[in-house]
Amino acid sequence: MAKRSWSDANEGMEFMTVGPLSPLLCPLRNMLTGHGKPQLITAGNGEQSFPQISRKIKAYNEAVLQDIENLHNTLKEVSKKVGLPEPAALQCSALQKSAESPSQPTRSVHGVSGNGYRLGVSVQDNHGPSCDNSPKISPEDENLPHVPIHSLYALTKLRALRSPDAPEGHSSPARDDFISRGALQLEDAERLFRLYRDRLDAFMYGVGCKYQQLEELRRKSPILTAATLTVAALHDPQSNSLYGICSSEFRTLTERSMFDRRVNRDYLRAMCVASYWLSDVSWMLSGYAIRRAAECNLHNSYTRAIEEKSEEAADGARLWYILNICDQHLATLYGRPAIVQEDSSMQQWESFLKSPVSTEEDKRLASQVALLGIIGSIRELFGPDKGQPTPRAYVHQITHFSKQLDHWIKHWSETLPEQYQHIGRFPRKGALLHFHFAKLHLYSHIFRGLSGDSPIPHHFLDCAASAISVATSTIDFIITDPDVAAGVVGMPSYLHCMTAFACMFLIKVAVKYGGDLVEPQRVWGLTTDLVRHFRSLPAGRWHLANLMAPGLERMVATLKPGQSGEPGHHHSHVQTVNTGDRLNTNGVIDAQLSGSNTDGTLMGPEGEFFFDYDMSFGLSPVFQFDMSSLNTNTQTMTGQDFTQVDYQTTRPVT
Q1: H-helix or E-strand containing 32?
Q2: pTM for the full model?
Q3: Cα(471)–Cα(450) distance, rounded to whole angstroms?
Q4: Which pLDDT tens digit goes with each residue over 295-345?
Q5: Residues 611-620, buried b or exposed e (16+ Cβ, 10 A)?
Q6: Can you give the pLDDT at residue 30?
Q7: How far is CA 488 from each of CA 85, 133, 257, 333, 433, rounded to the nearest angstrom?
Q8: Buried (b) or exposed (e) across 156-192, using 16+ Cβ within 10 A?
Q9: Distance between CA atoms of 652 and 654, rounded to whole angstroms?
């Protein structure tokens, strides 16, 4: 016999109502008695049932909560105006959100951190990791698992083991960012956004920002807003006081989102923007972004773009390419292994270019992917620097890689269009710049292990001469070519680091080997011209060009010509020698170093010696910047005034 429902068992019995809803809580008190069970009350005309009262109570509570939130927001604005700290967050709002969440409500224990912020600790935190409430499955329900983690997830349902969904088109219901809070004025934000959209984004192949209006960008992604405005402030000489505000907001949002289960496409876009331009956080964010992108299956976007001809998948493939480019750049700069190895999308970029979803900008992107394939092979051959000389047998491999680079520049010089929107002729010139730096990176390996007075082996003399030629021509190219000279404001941080590398290389070689490989006076002239050019650029105070200039000046001071017109040396650091042909009987070039005496002007901020004569050409301590130690207040650097610069038309004078 089937079990009867309550209504069947009480057929004909009317659910009694109570008086009107006034005062509000009295009917609820009257209806709940004893153990909280509904009590049947005599109904009358105009009176309301229990469900009706429940709905009205809920509506009333929501209205009260909305009024309180409005008052709280007004109080926050008033506190800002008068300089008082912001009031604490509303507890009732948090309770309402937790009640509306499908998960079980949690009770929070609040404390105060050392920074004065309130901490919310869920009592469920002690109950272990969260699990999915998925249907139980048996072994025969599914095919064999594709990867081992699927098996563990099937048994445990641990939510952290599965890839999160990445909702697209997500927008915040209420805009609450550093612009709405008044930390950054709207007109300043609009100006920075236009600078990024109309100028800077083209340097990253147009991948960084797909929005045309700041309003839409703010609504879609606060973290992408902060990232793009930070990069724009870095490049804008009028925004020295704004860079710290934007950078702090971006760092805060990044820290808060580090353990978020879900990230969307724009979040990964923000990580790309930061990894591409912000040298102080690029190493950390690049690796993190690659992990999060893989969680969102971004590495398979390349295949989907080709097979499905999907624009959305093509956008994902471009982001994955950018992340790989940043990864390879950083591996080169730091001499460390790249995170992504043997990726099919990086090896088969031709197929992506042939697909219907490919654009003209994708040619530039593919040129970088192809170049980094060669550079990756160079890194794989030489490996990390262990302080040992490069084997003589590597002469043939160096020649082979040099020919590959020659073929690369020939192909892309003919393939890339001469003119691009927003950045003019820079793409072709930028490809040539990348080519020069790749050659310098290749040839510089022959100086490994040449510590102290170790001479350059005769079988590497041609490579050494080629390295000098490439380094000098590269610096001259940056100074004299108008497109590259203007592109210094906008190019990625990788190119600035490689510029520092070229300068350090020339100065070290000039000091150690004198005029046998390069005239010190020539190096002094090139470097001082480069410093002069950097100081003339319309760039922000914290731009790498402005940060590099003082360090370059200190380094090149060792080569400053004396009154006799010959390069002078500080005290007894470098011996005065004849700069004629100094090949010894073994066909090698000897070093010109003196004893261990050093000049205090060549000491770094922590006592390290600027010239490390093992000829290791990584980034010198003088070029390693801790941005957190910089004063990003409203004080500006002394120098030229660039407040009237037009980024679209003005190029720095060379």
Answers
A1: strand 32-33
A2: 0.68
A3: 19
A4: 998 988 988 998 999 999 999 999 999 999 999 999 999 998 999 887 887
A5: bebebbbebb
A6: 47
A7: 41, 54, 32, 18, 11
A8: ebeeebeeeebeeeeeeeeeebbbeeeebeeebbebb
A9: 6
Radius of gyration of the chain (CA): 32
* Three-state secondary-structure class, residue 482: helix
List beta partners, residue 32: 38
**Is pLDDT larger for residue 14 or for residue 156?**
156
CA dist., res. 136 & res. 409, Å (int): 58
Closest Cα partner for 611 from 567, 562, 558? 558
The DSSP symbol for 595 reads -
Residue 23: is the preceding peptide bond cis (ω within 30°)? yes
Q: In this structure, are residues 464 and 517 in contact, taking their beta carbons and an 8 Å threshold?
A: yes
* pLDDT band, residue 536 (cuts 50/70/90): very high
In our burial notation (b when 16+ CB lie closer than 10 A, e otherwise), range 26-35 reads: ebeeebeeee
CA nearest to 231, candidates 202, 263, 260: 202
What is the per-residue DSSP string for 486-508?
A: HHTTTS-HHHHHHHHHHHHHHHH
pLDDT at 542: 94
Average confidence score pLDDT of the chain:
76
Cβ atoms within 10 Å of 460's Cβ, excluding its own = 24
Tokens representing 411 are: 């192909």
> What is d(CA 627, CA 372) in angstroms, rounded to the nearest whole number?
28
Tokens 């017109």 sit on residue: 565
Euclidean distance between CA atoms 622 and 601, whole angstroms:
12
- Residue whose C-alpha is closest to residue 316's, from 299, 328, 339, 329: 299
Residue whose entry in the numeric block shows the structure tokens 């624009």: 311
Task: Give CA–CA dist 534/526, Å, rounded.
Answer: 12
Whole-number Å distance between alpha carbons of 493 and 326: 10
As to burial, measured by CB atoms within 10 angstroms (0-12 exposed, 13-18 middle, 19+ buried), residue 443 is buried
Q: What is the secondary structure of 402-441 as a DSSP string?
A: HHHHHHHHHHHHHHS-S-BTTTBTHHHHHHHHHHHHHHHH
- 334, two tokens: 């730091």
139: which DSSP letter?
Answer: G
Q: How far is 34 from 40, CA to CA, in rounded Å?
A: 13
d(CA 41, CA 49): 10
Residue with tokens 């790989």: 324
Helix or strand or coil: residue 389? Answer: coil
User: Which H or E run includes 290?
Assistant: helix 282-295
Q: Which percentage of the chain shows pLDDT scores above 70?
A: 65
> What local confidence, expressed as pLDDT, does residue 531 receive?
97
How many residues can be counted in the chain? 654
Q: Which residues are CB-neighbours of 87 under 8 A, at least 6 positions away?
A: 72, 75, 76, 79
| Distance (Å, whole) CA 113 – CA 430 | 49
pLDDT tens for residues 578-606? 333 344 434 455 554 433 333 433 434 33
The secondary structure element, H or E, covering residue 362 is helix 360-382
